[in-house]
Amino acid sequence: MKIKEFLEKNRVLFQMIYGVFLIILIPTFIAFNTIYLINKYSESIDTTIQRNGLLVGRSIYALIKSDLNNNDILQNKIELLASKSTDILEINVLKPGNDNFIFVASSNPENINKFYKYEYYDLAWAQPDNDGLATDFVRVQNEDDLVINPDTGNRFWLIAMPMSDFNGHKEALLTVKLSSDIVDRLVSENRTTSIYVLILTILFVILFLAIAVRLWDYALLYKKIKEVDQMKDEFISMASHELRTPVTAIRGYASLILEGSFGEVNEEVKKSLSNINSSAKRLNLLVEDLLEVSRIEQGRIEVKSSPTDVNPIIAKTVEDLTVQAKEKNLVLSYLPHSDKLPLINIDQDKFTQIIVNLIGNAIKYTKEGTVEVFTEVKDSGKILEIKVKDSGVGMSANERKNLFGKFYRIQNESTKGIGGTGLGLWITKKMVDLMGGQITVDSIEKVGTQFTVSFPIIKG
């Protein structure tokens, strides 16, 4: 089996797999990207805090450096500095001794004279003068404050840097604990908001992708429908052309027999031939309508418009259809508002077909009474209206809505026995539209109908 045939055969399966793949992949990528950015943002904040913490440590170092040998003054300064900011949790000055560090001054008096052994202090002591380390810890209740704990707690930053005397000899170790509560709270709020936004975004994306996959399916279905519709139009066009020749031949032969070209025929044969001729005529009209529909839908209609006085066209059409009206005992009249009508830009053949369709339709649906054709100029001389009014069966408001639909026919008690394809008015409206006009209908059921065709008047 060829690859193309295999893909076409399993198109629906591959489409489902592709849709599921998109619905999983894109939200996963968005989630990964958002979490990555949140983590990078937190790292950037920590880096900034770390640098600022070292700056705070250097500032305190500069303020107390001259008092390293006077513990009382050093203690007073440390307590004063710690009280100036709630973000400073603790300031300590330690001096090395016996592989340990002893607190000589502290904002927490309980620390004074305590010995402390901590690897972090050793690392900080090894740093150059006026430089140090800054790292974050989590405070644990009832435990050593310097123990790193993964459980939730209030985070703080510990800054540690060696202090030298004026000769450059390391003499003490300065440690500063800075609270990270405010920053951590803001970061946490932003992270929570970002997660909510992420969830909503993913839900919208999943919904959008589901709709997109569905629309894709509709697009493929629409493509198939267009292909079928194109095949239908081509078939109708071909079938109509093929039908036209035999229908014409049938009508021709029937007419020749009726005229006696093949000898005398009795009345029964004439009656049968008349029925054949009548049926062939209806079939011919159907073929012509189908061909017209095919030409319109395939865009093969040519409109050759020119400025025209439609008065002679309407008069000639009314004259031609008078016989048809008289056969039903109807009065067909034409009442132009003037002997010479304003010029309008139309295709004369298409306009003739429009008038024939409207008057023929009025005669068909009028059982008794009149069919009137008249003209009016509206909109301050800008529009010419041609109206066809009958006293026929009329129609309801719902029926008027669908009147210009393809193959639509009004079917009720009043229209029983009235034939037709339902294409005439659809073709009429399409032709009016092609020539830049408008067609409207007003009707009252069991009273009558009026069609109005409007075209812009050409100003001389």
From TrEMBL:
Pfam name, any one: HATPase_c
Primary location class: membrane
Membrane topology: Multi-pass membrane protein
GO-annotated molecular function: ATP binding; histidine phosphotransfer kinase activity; phosphorelay sensor kinase activity
E.C. no: 2.7.13.3
Keywords from the UniProt entry: ATP-binding, Cell membrane, Kinase, Membrane, Nucleotide-binding, Phosphoprotein, Transferase, Transmembrane, Transmembrane helix, Two-component regulatory system
Transmembrane intervals: 12-38, 195-216
Domain spans labelled Histidine kinase: 238-459
A GO CC term assigned to this protein in UniProt: plasma membrane
Name assigned to this protein: histidine kinase
Location in or out of the cell: Cell membrane; Membrane raft
Reactions the enzyme catalyzes: ATP + protein L-histidine = ADP + protein N-phospho-L-histidine
PANTHER family: OSMOSENSING HISTIDINE PROTEIN KINASE SLN1, TWO-COMPONENT HISTIDINE PROTEIN KINASE
InterPro entries named in the record: HATPase_C_sf, HATPase_dom, His_kinase_dom, HisK_dim/P_dom, HisK_dim/P_sf, Sig_transdc_His_kin-like_C
Keyword Transmembrane: yes
